[in-house]
Amino acid sequence: MRLGLSVGFLGAAAALVMSAAPVAAQQGQFRIGVVNTPRVMSELPAVASAQRSLEAELGRYRTEVDSLERTLQRRQEEFQRNSATLTPAARTQQQQALQQSLGAYQQRVGQLNQLAEQRQQQLVAPVMRQVTEAIERIRREQGFSMIWDASANFVVAVDPTFDITDRVIAAVRAMPAAAPAAAPPAAPAPRP
Description:
Elements: H1 2-26, E1 32-35, H2 37-42, H3 45-82, H4 88-141, E2 146-149, H5 165-174
Parallel strand pairs: 1-2
Helix pairs in contact: 3-4, 4-5
């Protein structure tokens, strides 16, 4: 419920700002800039470099997942081959062991997915800080009252002269390279 109220409040506030914008703009007091952050990110070499680093690191995770899948598949095939010759108690025991192995596999895949998401955030965070700094600097230097992200699908139509995406790209490219993210933490070892 609280989220609904917040979204409603933001919508009402945005409508108020948009209705006041033409009058304020005529008085030279209110300027809105628009930036397309996905486009900014897609055009920055640092983001491509971070993506390559992430892909290399994910290769290790994929290798581990593939190995776990093969082991699980082999155990399941063994069970199916031998189930006819097993006693009911042994069959139940092996089924339970297979279920435990499947649960452990799913848990490990979840851990690795979480690690991959965290690592992606670590790698992109320095570039996002630079983009944010560039947007704020352009807003301040060029007298914008507000910068909206066009990718948020909140703006229905905008005068293209308000789009500062190219200026943000140029400003980030002019900055010194972002410090690389720290090395990834070692993935926790799977439980036996």
